[in-house]
């Protein structure tokens, strides 16, 4: 039996870990994490974690490679400190788009990430909105996938949206968008798009569904460079839609994303705090939905042996 639960954070998103701990009513655990001059990462827990139920909070976001390696070393250090159980809390799981071998001579990087995390010593995974559901099957340890659908849709319900349609940015996102449409009790449309080679460019081709004269909520699981969103706005405007809200669960906002969103003619951009959004990337029309309560509730249930799935029933 585990003596107690303890939550620790890497250097990528300490704000989220502190918010989770505030809701759990306990302090963030003490751990030293830093880099030597040679860029080697050092981790040392500053409190006893022997036989404790340990949760390590670290999204895989910029700098991505460092954040991944840092979590792996934190897991290894916790295992060698005789932690009772180690749960990797990964609010954003990078490499999720590389979930299958869809071209010759390419890796399945999402599976590699799963292997690395397991090899390091994680006993279970707690994450939020994986890019593809089958990634859960890449792990041989339990995976609890939370959904930001609930806090985001609750916020949108409060806005009393009228004459709206939820729009999926491509056919692959249809289920995600359909779930949102069902929560908001509004229609669904889908943008037909194609990705141009291995570049970050996409081209929106057509809209399946009626958006003419209607307001639309564009939903995507993540905004990286905002190329997909920009193309979606363009094609929707060509179909004479009215106002546009953009919603996403993971605001990665790489490269030109912020400038593209700033230039986009949209009413609001609704995101979560699964990854940190620094002040320079926060636009005046951006709303950030907190996820700490979702993670705190899940951690409480995992620690006490209750069902995590019951949170969404």
Short descriptors:
313 residues; alpha/beta; Rossmann fold; seven-stranded mixed sheet; 26% strand; globular
Give a concise summary:
With 313 residues, the chain is an alpha/beta fold. Helices cover 30% and strands 26% of the residues. Helix 4 crosses helix 5 (174-184).
Topology readout:
Blueprint: E1 5-9, H1 14-24, E2 31-35, E3 41-45, E4 53-57, H2 64-80, E5 85-90, H3 109-120, E6 124-128, E7 143-146, H4 149-158, E8 164-168, H5 174-184, E9 188-195, E10 202-208, E11 215-223, H6 227-238, E12 244-251, H7 257-263, E13 268-272, E14 286-289, H8 292-304
Parallel strand pairs: 1-4, 4-5, 5-6, 6-7, 8-9, 8-11, 11-12, 12-13, 13-14
Antiparallel strand pairs: 2-3, 9-10
Helix pairs in contact: 1-8, 2-3, 4-5
Structure description:
Strand 2 (about 30-35) and strand 3 (about 40-45) form a beta hairpin. It is globular, with a radius of gyration of 20 Å. The chain has helices spanning about 15-25, 65-80, 110-120, 150-160, 175-185, 225-240, 255-265, 290-305, and strands at about 5-10, 30-35, 40-45, 55, 85-90, 125-130, 145, 165-170, 190-195, 200-210, 215-225, 245-250, 270, 285-290. The chain has about 325 residues and is α/β, with parallel strands linked by helices. It has two domains: about 5-145 and about 290-310, Rossmann fold, CATH 3.40.50.2020; about 150-290, Rossmann fold, CATH 3.40.50.2020. The mean pLDDT is about 95.
